[in-house]
Write a structure and sequence with these properties.
The complex is a heterodimer of chains A (299) and B (320). With 299 residues, chain A is mostly helical. Chain A has a single domain, classed as MetI-like (MetI-like fold). Chain A is 73% helix and 0% strand. Chain A is built from 13 helices and no strands. Chain A starts with a helix and ends in a 5-residue tail after the last helix. The model of chain A has no long low-confidence stretch (mean pLDDT 87). The mean pLDDT of chain B is 88. Chain B has a six-stranded mixed beta sheet with strand order 6-7-8-3-9-10, with helices on both faces. The two termini of chain B are 35 Å apart. Chain B is of the alpha/beta class and 320 residues long. Chain B is globular and about 70 Å long. The chains are: A mainly alpha (299), B alpha/beta (320).
Chain lengths: 299, 320
């Protein structure tokens, strides 16, 4: 059996197939991701190209004109296209932030759990301190420091990176704690002792033996964190401290639309908001399903 | 081949420093192994038997270097173990087989990779094709099919898994094998198969074994010599048959009494009274004195030394 056939035959895939919720959220997530990734080719208008934006097109209501399905905003940008490009930024920031926090969390958690002793105590106290600050506060703080410390043009160039770092750094302790817990269980199992008897280095044992056996729960947390990271980024951008205006995300679009919400042009804020809800909800539901599917006690 | 000299391993099981200081408690030291001496000549099997918690598994782990000793030393081929284990060539010559066949194989690795791990670690067979051939040979040697190499551990039964462990341990061509209760997780018929396999491998490959068990029947089948452990010390060390025919230490006799015997059904037994004392605060003098029928004042005050294979004042004074 090749890998694909084995996957289609696995318990995990069976559990996926028989859960309508999982299939539905996977479809929605897939649509969101494809729409975002393929925005430059699928979107009816290129909203990032300032030359193609015409103020005469401003405030078109939705569902009235072909090519402007979801209407246009105050600058004459197509809302649907803006959502697709915005989703691209949101998704990019979310995925990078989750990758960053997962890599940091897994590395530190694995090291703390496997080495134990002083290293463990030190790393876990760091995680405790980090956890006492709300994630959002940390993100605001990092962003504020980067803004104050870096010259404007430098900051604008690395603004996306700053947001990724700010969101990622605030969620690593959760992953580190989970990984540390699993590592504490695995490191005393006899297959690890057997590897130590033949004198393998700690690094090699951690990478080849312990790591593959502690990644299950990480996958679930990372999926759930993706939704959280997208929301955090949208909140930061809504407040105007997240991504730069040259790369609007869904949060930026909602902020712009917010100004017109009470004056009748509701579509500018509502549609990006709905897109955000669809994206985050589907990712979260997928994460929930994955958590249950990987939990042997719920089988 | 391998020798232990006054080997000891203590574990610090105190509460955290702050709690301990606030409660004005002393440190709590668990004396898992407290002065154990033995040697195992090449090609023979020494077994250590004893109740749970007597320190036999700790001895096994000390002997392969998983724990550093608190006191005393382990000599491998006359060299200190830590110095010997610094050289891959010496490390290659010692291997360990574990108790739980469900925990001793990495569940995410294929059997081929599990068995080949020591070969790769010591770079014994660099060519991949030759490596596959070597793993196939090892699997055949322990009574499995070479085709089993492509499967995962969960596809095997407990006995088969233990065979995989044996194949893995043999893959680095070791001369000294430590077996930490290799059969206690298996059912009786499978136990016999694994024991026969190990005896056969010893004959074929000239292996030296340190065998840890709490099962006297198993020990009798495999051992040349047997050490009886009680609370971190060896109380009696004798040739296998002698120990079963003429047990000398009162504790050994009590253990022999406890073996079920077909010919003696219905006979009255004299159970050993009391519990195993805590290795955190062992009794004064001879550790066995609270449970010993022969104990006197000297036993309560003075720890007996190992003389002529037995550590007991009563035996040495002829009071038995």
């Amino acid at each position: 059996m090749n890998r694909v056939a084995r996957f289609l035959d696995s318990d995990l895939f069976w559990s996926f197939r028989t859960s309508p919720m999982a299939v539905a959220s996977a479809l929605v997530a897939l649509v969101c991701i494809l729409g975002a990734v393929l925005a430059p080719w699928l979107a009816p208008h290129n909203v990032l190209d300032l030359a193609s934006v015409d103020l005469m097109d401003a405030f078109k209501p939705p569902f009235t004109e072909a090519g402007w399905t979801l209407g246009s905003d105050d600058q004459g940008r197509d809302v649907l296209s803006a959502i697709m490009f915005g989703g691209r930024t949101s998704l990019l920031v979310g995925i990078c932030a989750v990758l960053f926090s997962t890599v940091v969390g897994v590395t530190l958690g694995l090291t703390a759990g496997y080495l134990g002793g002083t290293v463990d105590a030190l790393l876990m106290r760091m995680a405790d301190v980090q956890l006492t600050f709300p994630a959002f506060l940390v993100a605001l703080l990092v962003d504020g420091i980067a803004r104050a410390a870096l010259p404007q043009e430098v900051h604008e160039r690395i603004a996306l990176g700053v947001v990724v770092f700010a969101i990622g750094i605030s969620t690593w302790p959760q992953i580190a704690r989970t990984v540390r817990g699993s590592t504490l269980v695995e490191r005393n199992k006899e297959y690890v002792l057997a590897a130590r008897v033949i004198g393998l280095t700690n690094l090699r044992i951690m990478a080849t033996h312990v790591l593959p056996n502690v990644l299950g729960p990480v996958l679930v947390i990372a999926t759930l964190n993706l939704g959280l990271a997208i929301i955090t980024e949208a909140t930061l951008s809504f407040l105007g401290v997240g991504v730069p205006p040259t790369q609007p995300s869904l949060g930026t679009l909602i902020r712009i639309g917010n100004d017109f919400l009470m004056s009748g042009e509701w579509w500018i804020a509502i549609f990006p908001g709905l897109a955000l809800v669809a994206m985050v909800l589907s990712v979260n539901l997928l994460g929930d399903w994955l958590r249950d599917a990987l939990n042997p006690r719920l089988r | 081949m391998i020798a232990a000299k006054e080997l000891a391993r203590h574990f610090d099981v105190s509460k955290p420093w702050l709690q301990r200081t606030l409660a004005r408690e002393p440190k709590r030291i668990l004396r898992a192994v407290d002065g154990v001496t033995f040697d195992i000549p090449k090609g023979t099997t020494l077994s250590l038997v004893g109740e749970s918690g007597c320190g036999k598994s700790t001895v096994a782990r000390l002997v392969v270097g998983l724990y550093p000793p608190t006191a005393g030393q382990v000599l491998f081929e006359g060299k200190d173990l830590a110095a010997a284990r610094a050289q891959p060539e010496m490390r290659r010559r010692m291997q360990m087989i574990f108790q739980d066949p469900y925990a001793s194989l990495n569940p995410r690795w294929r059997v081929h990779d599990i068995v080949a791990e020591p070969i790769r670690a010591f770079n014994l067979v660099p060519d991949p094709a030759a490596q596959r051939e070597r793993v196939a040979e090892l699997l055949r040697q322990v009574g499995l099919s070479p085709l089993d190499g492509g499967k995962y551990p969960h596809e095997f039964s407990g006995g088969q898994r233990q065979r995989i462990s044996v194949a893995r341990a043999l893959s680095s061509n070791p001369e000294f094998l430590v077996c930490d209760e290799p059969t206690s997780a298996l059912d009786v018929s499978v136990q016999a198969q694994i024991l026969n396999l190990m005896k056969q491998l010893q004959r074929d490959l000239g292996l030296t074994f340190l065998f840890i068990s709490h099962n006297l029947a198993v020990v009798r089948q495999v051992s040349d010599r047997i050490g009886v452990m009680y609370l971190g010390r060896i109380v009696e060390l004798a040739q296998s048959e002698n120990l079963f025919l003429r047990p000398r230490h009162p504790y050994t006799r009590a253990l022999m009494e406890a073996i079920p015997d077909l010919e003696m059904t219905g006979r009255s037994r004299t159970p050993v009274g009391g519990e195993v004392p805590s290795p955190i605060s062992p009794p004064s003098g001879c550790a066995f004195h609270p449970r010993c029928p022969l104990a006197n004042d000297r036993c309560r005050a003075e720890a007996p030394a190992m003389l002529d294979g037995v550590a007991c004042h009563a035996v040495q004074e002829g009071r038995d």
